[in-house]
Amino acid sequence: MTGVLSPAGEIRSTTPAAAPVTMAGALNAALADSLSADERVLVFGEDVGTLGGVFRVTDGLAARFGERRVFDTPVAESGIIGTAIGMAMNGLVPVVEMQFDAFAYPAFEQVTSHLAKLHNRTRGLITLPIVVRIPFGGGIGGVEHHCDSSEAYYTHTPGLRVVTPGSPADAYRLLRQSIDCPDPVVFLEPKRRYWSKETAVLTTDGPAIDRAVIRRPGTDVTLISYGGTVQTGLEAAEAAAVEGWNVEVIDLRSLSPFDDPTVRESVCRTGRAVVVHEAPGFTGYGAEVAARLTEQCFHFLEAPILRVTGFDVPYPPPHLEHLHLPDTERILDAIARLQWDDSA
Amino acid sequence: MTTFATATRTAAEDRLLPSAAPLQLIDPDGHPGDNPGGLALPEPRMLLELYRRMVLGRRFDLQATTLTKQGRLAVYPSSHGQDACQVGAALALRDDDWLFPTYRDTVAIVTRGVDPVEALSLLRGDWHCGYDPYRYRIAPQCTPLGTSTLHAVGLAHAARLKHQDQAALVLLGDGATSEGDTHEALNFAAVWRAPAVFLVQNNGYAISVPLAKQTAAPTLAAKGIGYGIPSLLIDGNDAAAVYSAVRTGIERGSAGQGPTLIEAITYRIEAHTNADDAARYRQAGEVQSWLARDPIARLEAYLKAAALLDDDAVRRLAAEAERFAEGVRQRMNIDADLDPAELFAHVYTRPTEALEHQRAALLSELEDSAR
After folding, report:
1. Neighbours of B354 (CB within 10 A)
2. Is the ipTM here above 0.90?
3. From A129, which residue of chain B is nearest by alpha-carbon distance?
4. CATH fold for the domain made of A213-336
């Protein structure tokens, strides 16, 4: 096998045997299986047809399903979302790709003023089962405009579901769940994990679209992560174990709605929590997580909830991005500051 | 190897460019227009219906403006003066076609059959859209300029993908042609050959900004050639021309020939809304000159000269319009029964747990304050 991706249809085994799969391959399989399962499903965007997407997530789909269902559009992001809305109004299920996080901004008005609101605007008469796939976040040495963590823009908009997978197997599950979901879904793909591998059976069985999962059980502190930082969190947890902390790692999966019961239960049990994300901390997603957990778990907390985030700076150039991204060391530092010794 | 024969290019330009002067089937005095282009005069029955609907629409529009002054509507953008565009566009649609209106197109919505009270739900402030889009094939009135052009193109393209004979007509104003979404929609429609019709009601002003500050294009219709879209420049106060032009666009789309751009030259007699003061940006004389080009008076003169209408019929129609307005007035003076819980009901197809909590909190707050 050459390259990081397999052609569509070859990734998901027909037998349920576990096989190694990359996150990009799992997403490709999810798109292929959704296109097979439901003829209303369309896949379109910039370079998603002949080329198979700049990250090859749509590789082979146009050849397999035809240009009527998988096609390239003009380079116009607002146009992609806006026409997807009209198509959904007419009974289709568009799965569209924004090529990079920051290149999705021209579509912001269509996403926030129409995609998010038409269902409410029409008292539920119009439903828009649209999935907007956006590769997001940094860590790939991308130049400016290719590495933004734009999740808070979307989670601040009622009417949108915002999800992001933390592993290849969950990328498959979550994308298929998103395509099946009658609400519009912003599907954030942690692009630096596209090539991460996992040996797994690709299935939709498992946690529902709006549920967080505990990736690593622990007793001392809850590490709340999502997307690209799930792997970072798991690595930090291993390092923390050496230092004597038993860290529980939560993969939020659904950023909106937020799975209060799962996260609350964990934090009330451990009494300590750290939220990790790449986006700037100021009014970032972690601020909401910390605020609502403080409201819900105050009497169980042994320490303030801490955030480990990117700095409040525009995303750095490739040679400086390692300074910006949360890493094991910063997570361990935060854990160390969780007031372990009351007498100190 | 690349050879562009001059003759071929000229033929393509001829096909795509609008006429130099606006096409007109009936002139402002009610005589047959001297520049019909390829537009066909509608049948007498349709001409009478265009007239009738304009009279009813004008009366409705006046009633809505009055209700706004009385505080019964939050805001009302009048289409007085644009009556021919409103009615001609709505009547030109076939049953399965879709209309994508803006906030100024309530008369078009009512003309297509929506209950007037449902149509005014947005502007009264009861809900963002008061009618069932699927029942009437009318999208919710769009407030952000230009954005619904893309929805119309998407819907029309979906119809093509599904092999359905269905077109989408999107209404926009001269100001909206400056929006990026309008550009993207024209481009997508052309590339996809979507059965979409763009009707630009060029009323000369985007609120206060005149067209000269909006564009340097010779006409708005002339923009079509840049997208490879054939365009029509028409007299927007001639209901027959509007009807016929929109029909032409729909038939082109239906025949797989793609989108059509129509620029209709018209004028908004009233201010932008009740909250606007048009005297700050336009002269009274300008308004007077457009009153002399009234779309209803023009068609009435034509129909009378053709012996299709008499004074008796005009009086009967005026009485019908009064009864219609009276009905609207009475019903609009009854407050709608609004359910606070509905705030949370349609954000998602099923309320999230957090929204359930917020709904319960609001209802209990209301219960406490009612005690």
Report:
1. 14
2. yes
3. B349
4. Rossmann fold (3.40.50)
